[in-house]
Amino acid sequence: MINFAVIGSNWITEKFINGTLVNNDLNLTAVYSRTLKTAQNFAGKFNVQQCFDDLQALSQCDDIDAVYIASPNALHFEHALLMLEKGKHVICEKPLASNIQEVDALYQAATANNVILFEAYKTAYLPNFAQIKNNLSKIGKLRKAHINYCQYSSRYQKYLNGENPNTFNPYFSNGSIMDIGYYCVAFTIALFGKPQHIQADAVLLNSGVDGCGAVLLNYGDFSVTIDHSKISRSDLLSEIQGEQGNLLIKQVSECTEVTLITDIVTDLTQDQHENSMSYEASFFAQQIKQGKMDLQSVERSKITSAVITEIRRLTGVKFPADNQ
Fold this sequence. Notes:
It is built from 10 helices and 14 strands. It is of the alpha/beta class. Helices cover 34% and strands 25% of the residues. The chain has helices at 11-20, 36-44, 55-59, 76-85, 100-112, 127-135, 156-160, 180-192, 277-290, 295-315; strands at 2-7, 26-32, 50-52, 66-69, 89-93, 117-120, 142-150, 197-204, 210-218, 223-229, 238-242, 246-250, 257-261, 265-267. The chain has an 8-stranded mixed β-sheet, with helices on one face. Strands 3-2-1-4-5-6 form a 6-stranded parallel β-sheet, with helices on both faces. It has 2 domains: 2-123, 3-Layer(aba) Sandwich (Rossmann fold), CATH 3.40.50; 124-277 and 305-323, 2-Layer Sandwich (Dihydrodipicolinate Reductase, domain 2), CATH 3.30.360. It is globular and about 60 Å long. The two termini are 38 Å apart.
């Protein structure tokens, strides 16, 4: 059994914990929050007794083997580095850090301390993502792909009201490409690897982050167009086009439906667990049990961060972490 703690007490932390209940490898042992009362209230939902409001104390606790990090983006690097250096395995919410320099430093720390570091990008471990990969050859030579994820943020009105929520605040390393757009970029990298050339444009908000944007990734003989937004909504499917057919994907982060169109239309959709985070939790535990990081996951994580760092450079989105 792998005893783990959580940093953060929001809805995504609760979903991850529930995802770990699908198998018996991970056992919630402790909860950290900035205030002890918040940690205790959250821990009570899962009958957990050990609570922390001190990160150093958490990192030094011998009862904890691993840590799930769901703090604000700008704190991912600091929190993950501390836990890795104290010998804890880490699964950290996407994006793993604010830029590629921080991501590289985290993987170096994981290697130096002989522990697992895993970016919590669930899509690549879903049964329907496997269906996409396994059926790419059926559409012939790849030519184009359109990856779409545009979702009007529930916090945008707060931003318009002048409340400056984390979602649209550069001091928290946030914005559309770091949130919604991350899924599009990581999906593309997981399928096709590192692009040869990157072009990008974005609509910047007065806060300095991007509200929405478009990215063109060139792979030589085919290209991928990404549309991402947190200030508008779209119900368009994502599509991968080949010379002999195409693949349609509904909800690129979850891959809820996958359709192959050639001379006939084939529904490739597989049943997936209702808590899609259960797949990333299982893969994290598997790496710990095997005692080594999955190199393909590490490579995808690094390339995704490098591509997003370049997209931000091209669009003029800057974070305080970029100056450190």
